[in-house]
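Look over what follows to help learners.
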Amino acid sequence: MQVIKPEQIGKAYDQITHLWQKAEFNRNNGIEAHERAIKIVRSPAVENPAKAQVESEAETGSEGEAINKSVSKALDIGCGCTGRFADLLQSGGFQVSGLDVSAEMIKLAQERNPDVTFIEGDICEVALPERYDLITAWDSIWHLPLDQQKPVLSKIVDHLNPGGVFIFSFGGTAEASDHVDDFMGPEVYYSTLGTEGFIALFLELGCRIRHLEYDQYPELHTYLIIQKP
C-alpha cells in the first residue's frame, strides 16, 4: 500500500476547496454530533455534583456580582474552510483555534473567521500550544498514515484538560485497514484502526467512551466521543 503523506494530502485538498464552497454543501454535516459533544463538556454534574455546585457558587461574588470564569478552549483539527464548527463552538462559549495541513483551506478559513486563530500544519508534527476542553477531528485524521494513528491520538488525549472531550469520525471497519481512492478527484489516502481498535486504544489511555454512532448507516462512517477523566 502506497501511503500518501499528510503534506501531499494538504496539496490534494488545495485543489478541491471548491467542493466545500458550493451552495449545496450541507453545513449541517456533523453539527448534531458536535452539539452532543458540547453537552458532555458542559455537564460536570453528571460526573461530580459537588464540583458542579462549587463552580456554580463561584460564578458570583460576595454581593452577587457576576465573575468571569476561565474561557473554555477548543481545537478543530482538519478544520477545512467552512467554519461551521468554529461558528458552533464560538456560539457555545469556546475560544476556538483551527489546524489544517492545507494552505488553501487555512486561507479561506481565516477570511471567513478572522477572529479565529488558524495554524497551517501537520498534526503528526505540530506542537500543540496548549490544552483544550474540546478537540474535534471530523473527517480529517482518517488521512493519517496508519502507523501514526496511535501516536497522534495519544497526543490529542494528552492535550485535553481533565474532563475534556474529543470527538472524531473514522471508518468503522472491523479491523485496522488503509486504502487510497480518487472519489473527490486527486488520490487521497485513508486509514483506520477499526472500531474495536479505537475503543481499545482509548480505554488503554484511561478515557471514558461517551458515544459511538454509525451516523450514516449502512455506510461505515462512524464517530466517537471520548472524555478524559
